[in-house]
């Protein structure tokens, strides 16, 4: 589990310095697509950790029900 969380931190650290290149490709004069890319990353990782078999949803429901 710790390696999974470390991978998430590494991926956001690798994506942020490279963000101007995709932002320039998506829309040259607007920063909103780049911000949406970072927001979708965090939302996806947040919902993913909730729904993993050992995540908060299974702890709330009980691991025997899965």
Overview of the structural elements:
The protein is an all-alpha fold and 66 residues long. It has helices spanning 2-15, 20-26, 32-51, 56-61. The radius of gyration is 16 Å and the shape is elongated. The two termini are 19 Å apart.
Structural class: mainly alpha
**What sort of overall outline do the alpha carbons produce when their principal axes are compared?**
elongated
Please tell me how large the radius of gyration is. Answer: 16 Å
Please report the total strand number as a whole number: 0
User: What is the overall pLDDT average?
Assistant: 76
Largest sheet: none
- What helical percentage do the residues reach? over 70%
> How far from one another are the termini?
19 Å
In DSSP terms (H or I, runs of 4 or more residues), the helix count works out at 4
How big a fraction of the residues is strand? under 5%
Q: Unreliable runs, pLDDT <50, ≥5 residues? A: none
SSE ordering: HHHH
Present the secondary structure layout:
Layout (H helix, E strand, L loop, with lengths): L1 H14 L4 H7 L5 H20 L4 H6 L5
Write a brief structural summary.
The protein is mostly helical and 66 residues long. The chain has helices at residues 2-15, 20-26, 32-51, 56-61.
What tags apply to this protein structure?
66 residues, mainly alpha, 4 helices
């Amino acid at each position: 589990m710790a390696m999974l969380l470390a991978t998430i931190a590494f991926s956001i650290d690798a994506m942020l310095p490279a963000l101007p290149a995709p932002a320039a490709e998506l829309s040259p004069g607007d920063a909103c697509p780049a911000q949406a890319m970072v927001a979708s990353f965090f939302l996806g990782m947040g919902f993913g950790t909730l729904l993993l078999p050992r995540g908060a949803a299974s702890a709330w429901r009980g691991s025997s029900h899965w």
